[in-house]
Design a protein that fits this description.
The structure is a single chain. Helix content is 22%, strand content 34%. By secondary structure, it is α/β, with parallel strands linked by helices. It has one domain: 2-Layer Sandwich (Alpha-Beta Plaits). Helix 2 packs antiparallel against helix 4. The radius of gyration is 16 Å and the shape is globular.
């Protein structure tokens, strides 16, 4: 699956490749992770659409990146690290209200995760998907990045995660699956 992200931030690498990693979540087991995901960043919708036209066949999703500051970001992004990818398939009863609540309340908790290095929340955008690709649309995706699988495991077992689960119970009405997968991330360029 390709995930195309619209981002005008110069410090984000151009592309990331995710493959499954092994980290036990004390609250969740969402089953078998996707075999691989490629995430590509673009600085305009036009550039994103042109690139999508060259991908061939497969699933694709386009989203806007909302990046949040973390206490200790990487001084320089490493070539490989561990990421926790979360996807909210949706729908929400009121999508705008759901996203507004999430973006206001959840990132301040997430950025308190021990040893977090990066936090992105991504929301869908309108775009022209080529007919050769199957368009996928989630209500929202997010990712938190850590130096290693061990650092992610420590964060998932921290008291902050308990606070995040309590906040989850306060989200506006929502139906649909939510998935959480630990992935090894490789920076492609």
């Amino acid at each position: 699956m390709f995930t195309l992200f619209l981002s005008r931030l110069a410090d984000i690498p151009g592309a990331l490749q995710y493959t499954p990693d092994q980290v036990r979540d004390p609250y969740l087991d969402d089953g078998v992770p996707p075999g691989g995901v490629t995430q590509i960043y673009f600085d305009s919708v036009g550039a994103l659409e042109r690139a999508a036209g060259e991908l061939g066949e497969g699933e694709v999703e386009a989203m806007a990146v909302h990046r949040f500051a973390v206490p200790e970001p990487w001084p320089r992004v490493p070539s490989s690290y561990c990421t926790y990818l979360v996807a909210y398939e949706g729908p929400a009863n009121d999508e705008a209200a759901w996203l507004a609540y999430y973006l206001k309340h959840h990132p301040p908790l997430m950025r308190k995760l021990p040893q977090i290095r990066e936090l992105e929340i991504c929301t869908p955008i309108d775009w022209r998907c080529p007919p050769s690709l199957r368009r996928v649309r989630h209500l929202q995706r997010n990712k938190v990045a850590f130096d290693s699988a061990e650092a992610l495991a420590a964060a998932l077992n921290s008291p902050v995660r308990t606070d995040m689960r309590a906040d989850f119970a306060q989200f506006p009405p929502y139906r649909g699956r939510v998935t959480h997968y630990a992935m090894t991330t490789r920076v492609l360029g």
